[in-house]
Design brief:
heterodimer; A: 213 residues; alpha/beta; Glutaredoxin; 7 helices; B: 167 residues; 6-stranded mixed β-sheet; 44% helix; globular
Chain lengths: 213, 167
């Protein structure tokens, strides 16, 4: 009993430290959440593609908008969506909405996510779109992506590039989807209206943040 | 006869105890889960959302099992629930995993399919990424959600912070 009591006391006296630590963690979590919301203007970015070339929004001068997908090599949910991401590119690139894929994972923390792995994956799966590296998670944090896959549909307007949809590609990662959120959103944008559903959630893999952050 | 009965009784009790940790995996709707959490009184429910396909989830599961088994470290009774987001149509995938990994605590499969509904109901703070963990203590009306992968140390601190926070 005595041992337990002293242990308890130790633990309680450590509580202040814990509370301070958790306040720091909370602050960090909030920083993570502070990405784009629907309606926000998007700053252009410049990231290296797996072929060594730099890609940004301005690489697509004729685009009406962009389908930005945070995806990776290793997450089973992201992998289950690869064919559907290719389909989006096949359907909408010619209509003015190309897919731009960004890998948000730190290759040191998550094995299988480095440049060579990405090149191999893109080759094996026949990616038809850029697959960009984001060292230091700069663009991932700018967007506020939290998981893979995580999709942001951006419309090019006279006032700048504006986020019009954030969330899932559809409502089912492993079965037959019944709601095609991303397709519907792009179709509506192409028809000159705003997406009816502009924010969805989905089960996915956490982003593997670098240890130095 | 008496001896045989006694032996059978002993065998039954022993098997009941030995079998206890590896309870069958069962399906649970979110309503059923929430009802359980709301009837927990002073018990702290540690609800870990995971999937067999999620590497970081699988990695942190032993930390949860280790911390809840250390009774002296915890101020309140603790109940750990591993809630799997694997397909409820294929419970055998989870059952096999639980047997292979010798998971000692209770494992449920969330019997819901509409992610647009259940993610927000569990926590509006949740983007859907796993692993994620919910801490609930009904008697003190406390509910804290973490969308993150824990190290053993981080998990210990989060549990302690939850126990010592007032409301």
């Amino acid at each position: 009993m005595k041992r337990i009591t002293s242990k308890l006391k130790n633990r309680l006296s450590g509580a202040i430290v814990v509370v301070m630590a958790s306040m720091m963690v909370l602050g960090y979590a909030q920083a993570q959440e502070s990405g784009y919301q629907v309606g926000d203007k998007v700053a252009d970015f410049s990231l290296k593609n797996i072929d060594g070339k730099t890609v940004s929004f301005s690489s697509f001068p004729d685009a009406k908008g962009y389908i930005v997908v945070f995806t990776c090599n290793t997450c089973p949910v992201a992998k289950s969506y690869e064919e559907r991401i290719k389909e989006l590119d096949a359907t909408y690139k010619s209509a003015g909405y190309p897919v731009i894929a960004i890998n948000p994972n730190d290759p040191v923390v998550q094995k299988g996510e480095d440049l060579a792995d990405m090149q191999q994956r893109a080759k094996d799966k026949g990616f038809t779109f850029p697959y960009l590296l984001d060292p230091g998670h700069v663009v991932t944090k700018q967007f506020g992506a939290t998981r893979t896959p995580h999709i942001f549909i951006v419309e090019k307007t006279e006032a700048g590039n504006v986020v019009q949809y954030i969330g899932a590609i559809d409502d089912n990662s492993n079965g037959e989807p019944s709601k095609f959120f991303a397709k519907n959103a792009v179709d509506e944008l192409l028809a000159g209206s705003k997406p009816t559903t502009n924010f969805t959630k989905a089960v996915g893999c956490t982003i593997k943040w670098g240890k130095t952050i | 006869m008496k001896q045989v009965l006694g032996f059978m009784m002993l065998a039954f009790l022993t098997s009941a105890y030995i079998d206890r940790p590896s309870k069958a995996v069962h399906l649970s709707t979110l309503d059923e889960l929430e009802t359980r959490l709301s009837q927990g009184g002073d018990t702290i429910f540690v609800v870990n959302f995971w999937a067999t396909w999620c590497g970081p989830c699988v990695k942190e599961m032993p930390y949860f099992e280790q911390l809840v088994s250390d009774k002296s470290a915890n101020l309140s009774p603790i109940k750990l629930l591993f809630v799997s987001l694997d397909s409820p149509k294929k419970p055998q995938v989870v059952e096999k995993f639980v047997a292979d990994k010798k998971i000692r605590n209770e494992v449920l499969i969330l019997n819901e399919t509409d992610q647009q509904e259940y993610i927000d109901r569990i926590s509006e703070e949740w983007s859907g990424a796993i692993p994620a963990t919910l801490l609930v203590q009904k008697s003190k009306n406390k509910r804290k959600f973490h969308e993150q992968e824990f190290t053993l140390e981080q998990l210990e601190q989060s549990l302690l912070a939850f126990q010592t926070q007032s409301q």
